[in-house]
Design a protein that fits this description.
The chain is built from twelve helices and eight strands. The chain is an alpha/beta fold and 347 residues long. An eight-stranded mixed β-sheet has the order 1-2-4-3-5-6-7-8, sandwiched between helices.
Length: 347
């Protein structure tokens, strides 16, 4: 009898695992035959350098990677771009950074701790790092480059890091732009983060993100963009996504599969910034998409309401990534904001 029970339990377990596996692979984002062929052709092309002038800064025991791109003529100022959860500096696309370069701004990107070329191995689950630690990483980069003040801009978790930096070190920030972010993701007065989106990301990670295949890595990057797209649909530049993905895999450290868990811990342990944002003096621009599938639009609205004299840009159809069609709206608005703030400070 016991043997039959054990066999029956084993059969049920196998069926459950098979069912979950089937569900994962049938629920993942699917790609057309044309897209599959485009990915295969793109993988065969040479991978070109995706970074500017590279360097490292040191914050305690953590080594922080950054790169710098300079405008062709004189530099009117510097902007630091801070990426979101699990994303490295290369996630800032050239069509976004080029606008700042053309406007005369030096562009600085960095890999947050846990991703890219920045240290991965300094995470202690018993004593996780915080958003303050991550904002200090940004300051370490500025100190290394001998930049006293800069324009600070961050997307999603990068917006939370930007808020933390400007709260704790307002003297280092000329302006702050927070994109698709939140003053506190656990705020019960706001709609909760959309867990269905996280679940879909997890399904696609299980389908495409656990192996070593370069094709699957590209599919994973495309799937994430598909899931984070807003209501306004658009085509991806498959060649560019492939090139950036392969550059990370072949020329850098690849992708840290533990980074989401580690950085989520940093967000949770750091707590709310609601009260501190009410007294923030740094000129602020808040940008959020009205159809953000991950961090609801209301989080952006509350951020703008909390920060005195803040400006806001609400975009129809924008999700939780910045495609070119929306970058063409966002970048000029940011440049106008930075230029006008700098002019006021000089008067």
């Amino acid at each position: 009898m016991l043997k039959k029970i054990i066999l029956g339990f084993g059969l049920m377990l196998v069926m459950l695992i098979a069912g979950v596996t089937i569900y994962i692979f049938t629920s993942a984002v699917e790609f057309t035959e044309e897209q599959e062929n485009q990915i295969k052709l793109a993988i065969e092309k040479p991978v070109t350098k995706q970074t500017g002038e590279e360097g490292f800064a040191q914050n305690g025991d953590t080594r922080i990677w950054y790169d710098v791109q300079n405008p062709k003529d004189s530099i009117k100022g510097s902007i630091v771009l801070i990426m979101g959860l699990s994303a490295d500096a290369l996630a800032w696309p050239s069509y976004f950074t080029d606008g700042f370069l053309d406007a005369g701004y030096q562009v600085i990107r960095l890999d947050n701790r846990g991703v890219g070329m920045t240290d991965w191995d300094d995470f202690d689950p018993e004593n996780p790092y915080t958003l303050s630690d991550m904002s200090d990483d940004v300051l370490a980069v500025l100190d290394t480059l001998e930049i006293e003040q800069a324009h600070i801009a961050g997307v999603s978790m990068g917006g939370m890091i930007s808020q933390t930096l400007c709260i704790e070190h307002p003297e280092r920030s000329l302006t702050m732009t927070t994109l698709m972010s939140s003053p506190w993701v656990m705020d019960e007065a706001l709609p909760a983060l959309r867990m269905s989106c996280f679940a879909e990301i997890a399904i696609n990670t299980a389908s495409y993100g656990l192996g070593d295949s370069e094709i699957d890595a590209v599919k994973m990057a495309m799937a994430i963009r598909t899931l984070l797209m807003g209501s306004e649909k658009y085509e991806f530049n498959i060649d560019k996504i492939t090139e950036v993905t392969l550059y990370n895999l072949r020329e850098r450290n690849g992708y840290n599969r533990q980074s989401a868990k580690q950085q989520t811990a940093a967000i949770e342990i750091s707590g709310s910034r609601i009260e501190e944002l009410k007294t923030l003096t740094v000129p602020t621009l808040v940008i959020h998409g009205k159809t953000d599938p991950l961090i609801p639009f209301e989080h952006g609205v509350k951020t703008a309401q909390l920060i005195p004299n803040s400006q806001a840009l609400w975009i129809d159809g924008l999700g939780h990534v910045i495609p070119k069609i929306h970058s063409d709206i966002i970048v000029p608005r940011m440049i106008d904001f930075m230029n006008s703030t700098t002019k006021l400070m000089q008067e």
